[in-house]
Design a protein that fits this description.
With 248 residues, this protein is α+β, with helices and mostly antiparallel strands. It folds into 2 domains: 23-143, Sandwich (Tumour Suppressor Smad4), CATH 2.60.200.20; 146-246, Arc Repressor Mutant, subunit A (Orthogonal Bundle). Helices cover 21% and strands 28% of the residues. The chain contains 4 helices and 17 strands. The chain has helices at 128-145, 173-184, 192-199, 215-228; strands at residues 23-28, 36-39, 44-49, 58-60, 70-75, 78-83, 90-92, 95-96, 103-104, 110-113, 118-123, 153-156, 161-164, 167-169, 190-191, 236-239, 243-246. It has a 6-stranded antiparallel sheet with strand order 2-1-11-10-7-8, with helices on one face. It has a 5-stranded mixed sheet with strand order 4-3-5-6-9, with no helix packed on it. A 3-stranded antiparallel sheet has the order 12-13-14, covered by helices on one side. A hairpin with a 3-residue loop joins β16 and β17 (243-246). α2 packs across α4. The chain is globular. Mean pLDDT is 81; it is low at 1-17, 126-133 and 139-147.
Length: 248
């Protein structure tokens, strides 16, 4: 099936006639609790940030999320995800989406908004009974082991704050984007390509189809972030030829 090259900007008001609609599970993102299930009962679901006068179908609070951030749309029974030109980007299974270009979504796909300040999991309806309990159990397990009170470094993604031993550390936008990316993938090497895609998403693409960012720019950003981490700077480590890892 050929998908439209540009997303529809007008929301369909007609309810989709689906007896067993797919759904998403919110893995992260205020005001939702972890494990919240949201059924996709319309042909077009807008995801974004709510304001007093604007309420997307799935609404988050974090200021990094655009009002019209991305959408999930049903075309002939197949669902696609489209970034609506958001400022801080949308990723599908850790791959940054090009604005206004729909991408097919399949059962179990991970949707991340604005450097993972909000994360959704797309699930088909037939997987609901079997998957819901397993997914929620995994989320609970992850929340117990991630960011415990004993960790010297934690992040408050809703407030965009880095906390070191409970003390707030001021970060620039790109320092925050790098820290959020590494923290959400802590103890795993994040490739230089992914760092470029998430932190410098606004850049033109090079011949490898990743943002055109020099190694010096990455090194300078890592240096600045390490400096603000103080005595914990060695927790942020570069892996030669591969990327960076935050070891907590």
């Amino acid at each position: 099936m050929a998908f439209h090259r540009r997303c529809m900007k007008v929301l369909w008001s007609q309810e989709a006639k689906m007896s067993n609609p797919p759904f998403v599970i919110v893995e992260k993102g205020a005001p939702y609790e972890k494990g919240t299930s949201v059924s996709l009962k319309k042909h077009n679901i807008l995801i974004g940030r709510a304001t007093t006068a604007f309420h997307p179908d799935i609404s988050f609070e974090n200021l990094l999320i655009s009002r019209n951030h991305c959408s999930l749309e049903c075309h002939g029974g197949d669902w696609v995800l489209c970034d609506m030109g958001s400022k801080h980007g949308t990723t599908l299974n850790d791959k940054m989406l090009k604005p206004l270009c729909p991408h097919p979504v399949r059962n179990g796909d991970r949707i991340s908004l604005a450097s993972a300040v909000a994360v959704l999991r797309f699930l088909e309806s037939r997987e609901r009974d079997r998957t819901m309990s397993n997914t929620i159990s995994q989320l609970v397990a992850n929340s117990r082991c991630a960011g415990s009170s004993d960790d010297p470094i934690t992040v408050d993604e809703d407030k965009m704050e880095l906390l070191i031993n409970g003390r707030k550390i001021a970060l620039s936008v790109k320092e925050w984007q790098l820290m959020a990316l590494l923290y959400n993938n802590r103890n795993k090497v994040v490739s230089y390509e992914e760092i470029k895609t998430v932190v410098w998403f606004e850049r033109n693409l090079d011949y490898n189809q990743v943002p055109d960012v020099s190694p010096e720019e990455i090194n300078i950003l890592v240096y600045r972030l390490r400096k603000k981490m103080g005595k914990y700077d060695k927790l942020l480590r570069t892996v030669r030829g591969r990327g960076c890892v935050l070891e907590i």
